[in-house]
Amino acid sequence: MQDAPTGLKTFQTYIDGKWVDSVSGKRLLTSDPYTGKPWAEIPECEAADVNNAVEAAYRAFDNGPWARMTQTARGRVLRKIADLIEKNANYLAEIEVRDNGKLISEMSAQLKYLPEWYYYYGGLADKIQGSVVPVDKPDHFTYILREPIGVCGMIIPWNSPLLLTGWKLAPALAAGCTAVIKPSEYTSASLLEFMRLVIEEADLPPGVVNVVTGYGQAAGEPLVTHPKVSKVAFTGGSLTGSRVASLAGQTFKKVSLELGGKSPNIVFDDCIMEDAVSGAISGIFAATGQTCIAGSRLLVQENIHDEFVEKLIDMAKTAKLGNPMSFETQVGPVTTPPQYEKILGYIDIAKGEGANCVLGGGPAGADMGGGKYFVQPTVFTGVDNKMRIAQEEVFGPVLSVIKFKDEDDAAAIANDVMYGLGSGVWTQSIKRATTMAQRIRAGTVWVNTYRAVSFTMPFGGYKSSGLGRENGQDAINEYLQTKSVWISNAPGGGNPFVMKTAADD
Ligand code: TXE
User: Fold this and answer.
1) What is the DSSP letter of 331?
2) Is residue 228 a contact partner of residue 55, using CB atoms and an 8 Å limit?
3) The CATH number of 264-447 is which of 3.40.309.10, 1.10.1660.10, 3.40.630.10, 3.40.1190.20?
4) Which residues contact ligand 1 via a Cβ below 6 A?
5) How does 148-169 read in b/e, with b if 16+ C-beta sit within 10 Å?
6) pTM for the predicted model, two decimal places
7) Is the predicted pLDDT of residue 496 greater than 70, yes or no?
């Protein structure tokens, strides 16, 4: 990284163990969402750069030192990566905030937690084992190998770049794969700093981890379609995810997708109200609502609806907007200009649909502690689940409150969307909790908590929220494939169709 004469930082990208510019020499600007001003220049990679990166990753996978390393040694490399993230966590958190505008309190906690993914999958690296199978043929020895799938293309969004990279990279490296990572065009700087401070320092052989910065169509699509990429791991919007999956399908790549959500956060009348109110608020307003698991539909049982909404608004209106670099700030800016326009557009749609705007409902200017890309924490009541504001992902600080009668009603409303990522249930009844956990069609159900994640717990979506799972032991299977080995000690190899030779007559 260098200071350009323009005052902007200039980054190169990392391909085959070297720092390089894009082949075309083009660069794109990255901006600070709090000030709205560009602060760095990033290489604008295209198909030629992607090809260089994939070829390097393929060489490293096929026959380099990485391919020949024992699983135990690979585990050690992952633990070294974890140590280096720990050492650089504060700095990496600041770069994340600068690029995506999320709160420093949240990003610091996230970066301090991130090493656990690399420790966990480092520990798993030499527990990947095949098995000997008792086959139904006499005199055969048959066994199963579990092998790394190959070069993995990883496409990352702008909301939590390093965390969402870790969810893919840690299991992929533990499995013995190599990687080409395409970060979001809005937030590439933290990944490039991660490459410099972590991957380079961890002494990974050249080509094991590569980065192609650039736009979705120009850099993402060549990665998804490259014949030497065997697996695509994508996090982003459902529309883009659908395109990525269909392109990857043309060359039969394995695909995992972590997509959008319209998560129901369901409050029953026997909840502990203070806990549920703060769970509902942090469920939607944390990260300015820009998380795939935002609890954007708040389902409240009708007999406590009015009291609950009153308490919710009282607490939500105290939320402190401001500079995301300040530990005091509770709601920061929206990360990208198109996302800002999208959120305001949905607020208008909700008003037009007849929902009651009981809090916020527009931009938050400097007089409210906000600035250029700030949206007021917004609450709509009287929302019908058929409305677009209840069906479509807004990805912003906009909450839709929907009344329900009983468990049946709550389950029906919860499931009546195309998504199925997160969900919350607030109740003191174990019967209700377990019944709802069974009935909600979503990859995660939180009971009396919200937005908790861990490296040990599988994460992913039902329906249009995705395909496959990240985190937990099973996620390693996303980066492996199975080989069957047959060894025969049977006469004539045990083949039923033995050709007769002249000597037999
Ligand atoms: O996402 P995209 P966008 C949702 C959220 C948001 C909407 C759009 O609702 O409002 O998606 O956001 C790369 N081939 N989520 O437009 O397009 C792109 O460069 C290959 C939910 O920012 O999905 C970036 O690296 N790659 C989500 C990544 O895909 C392509 C997080 C994500 O961008 C591509 C973000 C293409 N054709 C948005 N087009 C979550 N699940 O957390 C784009 N990309």
Assistant:
1) B
2) yes
3) 3.40.309.10
4) 155-159, 182, 184-185, 215-217, 220-221, 224, 235-237, 240, 243-244, 258-260, 292, 339, 342, 393, 395
5) bbbbbbbbbbbbbbbbbbbbbb
6) 0.96
7) no
